[in-house]
Amino acid sequence: MRKLVFFDTTLRDGEQAPGFSMKTEEKIRLALQLEKLGVDVIEAGFPISSPGDFEAVQKVSEVITESSVCGLSRAARKDIEAAWEALKGARKPRIHTFLATSDIHMKYKLQKSREEVLSMAVDAVKLAVNLCPDVEFSAEDATRSDPEFLYKVIEEVIKAGASTVNLPDTVGYATPEDMYSFISGVMNNVPNIDKAVISTHNHNDLGLGVANALAAIRAGASQIECTINGIGERAGNAALEEIVMAVNVRKDRFPDVECSINTKELYRTSRMLTNITGVEVQPNKAVVGKNAFAHEAGIHQDGVLKERTTYEIMTAESVGFPSNALVLGKHSGRNAFTTRLKELGYSLSPEGLEKAFAEFKDLADKKKEIYDEDLEAIVLGRAAEHKKYYELEYVGFSSGTGSVPTVTMKLRRQDGSVITDASIGDGPVHAAFRTVERICGAEGRLKSYRINAVTPGKDAQGEVTLTAEFDGAGFNVGGKGYSTDVLVASVEAYLDALNGYLAKKENLK
Ligand SMILES: [Zn+2]
Questions:
Q1: pTM score of the predicted model
Q2: What pLDDT sits at residue 296?
Q3: Is the predicted pLDDT of residue 481 greater than 70, yes or no?
Q4: Is the model's pLDDT at 163 over the cut of 60?
Q5: Distance, CA 228 to ligand 1 centroid (Å)?
Q6: Under 8 Å CB-to-CB from 298, ≥6 apart: which residues?
Q7: What angle do CA 142, 147, 148 make, to 5 degrees?
Q8: Ligand 1 centre from 440 Cα, in Å?
Q9: 267-295 as b/e, with b when 16 or more CB fall inside 10 Å?
Q10: Cβ neighbours of 252 (radius 10 Å)
């Protein structure tokens, strides 16, 4: 049997797509869940690209014990050294260095000859191998590279010590037939190919990411680079959950491979990512979409009741779909609350737990049925444990047709002092954000703003996800807020973003 190595790049390729940025503590939480899922390699970031990425790779390296932790670097000394600096605390570190090998990239982007690219690749791998025992080399735009030149590069980087060679379809151009013959060509024409693991990395521009990954596996690739929910640059990357289930459900097509992914954690991992980013998957998304296991048509329902396999090729339980979404109510005790949070993958400090339980009781007074999503909203929202420079003490809104929207607000500072102010605006949200800015002395520009209902029902909590730039800092920060009142949720989200900005500013000092 051939072991498939699942290389998850949600925190790197996924996170660099617009609208998917994550804070360090969110990356740590997701990394721990990826480890629980059984991912073999976690690509945690691109350390030289920003102080935030560096910190995230470093922190993820500290907490992960089973999976390898990987950092990306270009084929340049300072990149590779920064990657190693961030990774060196990891139990199983991996440096991933990349360089383009297609004529179009070499000519226009790198402005280098084939000879120069070959020696840069070898030098980069040699440098990385000196620092770290596990080194991966990626030939960027491999599928559009001249095959003979690519075979030479692969042979030489393996000689230099690369134990994994990744061959990405960077622009998502290949079809499954192309991919099969491309990987077969590599397997048959590189003399020392048995000395390294061949890896595949597929973008989804033509909707073929997963199909191409499967074709690559059949042709001999043993490492699959992919992301949760298929997030990533442009149209995204191949979705981990779809590849894993295809290999599992269609064992007849993949008889010689095995993987160590715990499929029962797939749904939970997908949910955690949507919770963090605020970007939902479409209901008809394979494996983890809301409708993936819903049988609406009468004929289908009848069939499934008589014999499940008439219309179902896999079970909802096998991917960890929750069987009872409704969990807690007004009379649930602290024990049930704590147990459920643990099952959802959250472990809080005693003070954090105290605060979260108080929020839960408060919510249970307003809302009869409490769902898993509500508990997550509490933990990620008001009871969140990151540093808060300002907290909402009180907010009052006055708005409606024919009146000037007015907001009064009290914010509590870290030292306990409370500041009161008021403002008018074009609408209540505008007035509220202006009041926050007046009190905190910051000037914000809202880049995106979204309201979702956390659960079904008219009494549902609203979830506001936004991004903003403060004081012309040159970077965006994200914020989230939850409340049964969407105006209050908006203020919480804006404060969350502002707190994130202030924390970042302090770190950069
Ligand atoms: Zn990519």
A1: 0.84
A2: 65
A3: yes
A4: yes
A5: 13
A6: none
A7: 130
A8: 39
A9: bbbbbbbbbbbbbebeeebebbbeebbeb
A10: 6
Spacing, Cα 238 to ligand 1 middle (Å) = 9
Ligand 1 centre distance from Cα of residue 392 (Å): 40
Distance CA 283, CA 14 (A): 20
pLDDT of residue 458: 87
Residues with CB under 5 A from ligand 1 (ion): 13
Residue 204 burial (CB count, 10 A): 23
Residue 296: C-alpha distances to residues 35, 303, 315, 323, 405 (Å): 35, 11, 16, 17, 45
Instruction: Return the residue matching tokens 């907001």.
Output: 407
406-413 and 418-424 beta bridge pairing: antiparallel
- Measured in Å, residue 13 CA sits from the centre of ligand 1 at 5
CATH of domain 390-508: 3.30.160.270
Q: How far is the CA of 181 from the centre of ligand 1 (A)?
A: 21
Q: CATH: 3.40.50.2300, 2.30.110.10, 3.20.20.70, 3.30.1130.10. Which one for 2-277?
A: 3.20.20.70
* pLDDT confidence bin for 147, thresholds 50/70/90: very high
Q: Which residue has the tokens 């480890």?
A: 35
What is the rounded average pLDDT for all residues in the chain? 92
